[in-house]
């Protein structure tokens, strides 16, 4: 658990950098408002408030105190807490903007003890006046000048202590405290809500204290812009320009580069100033897909992928029933060991090599006579008579063969085209005596 000290509006600090009664700032009575998710970006419209009746921070007086020689030790501790140089204090203060908190806000506060800035986790009550930097982060507590830094713990694991006059205030709800994260870019102006008149909005240029404010009507409706496909950072900018705030349902905030897949409410819905729009984003590495899904694999097409080149007249699944061209044979689907029709019969398998006279095509039966002609050896890749169909060469273009034909003069034949094996286009099939045996 993170130990957090409650800091109530209007209650003096026990170890301030400057006296609370010196007039550096003035808190207001503001009821904390619930926020979606707890994590808020510094450019969220309506995150902070203002008032038109009086200045809430005297930035010039704070600068004068920090640059006086007698406060040099405090100035060095103050600058170190904020990560700046002592001689850069005036320039740094010129870029800060006074606002009022509209939410109970977690920060890292600093007391001034024994010449050093001592950090501690603090919960600032809504209504406390602070100076925010160019990214919308609380930087200084106005009433005492104490430097502020972002809270870096888990807001769901805090233990808040109310003591030293900081009594638990009305409306306090630990589940509704917020943590401010820096805006994705430097701000030019901050959109505030008048804490005394919520129907009145205030546009305050960054680095000014109220003299250049412009007002607008917070009741005016604004349409949610199209956000699908934009990055999370870009979507936040578009919403802020419309006066709408970003909400995210997940833990923490996604990276600015995460792609937005949807918004709730959807594009075109009209909302009041400061209303929240919940964004859904794609998982890391995805683009435009819903959370939990994966993009299609590279190279995936809607059509089937084939292996090797194909003849325009052939089909990836089955040849045309009317085709009898040797260039598109139908492969045999008979299992090994089944009987096949004899070569030369309709649907039979023609001999792949010219057999010797009177000898079976598969080599079975009695050996040939010693006085007969010697059998012609089969060409490479031809069937061996073991029952396995001749090898089929896939991907060969029409008009080519898998092996050279047997030597000898071709003879004509009336047998049908082969049903298996590699077709020989443009050459007649060799003939020979029909085999009288069946393959194993």
From TrEMBL:
It comes from the Bacteria. Residues 283-440 are annotated as: Disordered. Residues 365-381 have a biased composition (Pro residues). Residues 41-206 form the DUF6777 domain. Residues 308-336, 348-364, 393-414, 421-440 have a biased composition (Low complexity). This is DUF6777 domain-containing protein. It comes from Streptomyces griseomycini. InterPro entries: DUF6777, PASTA_dom.
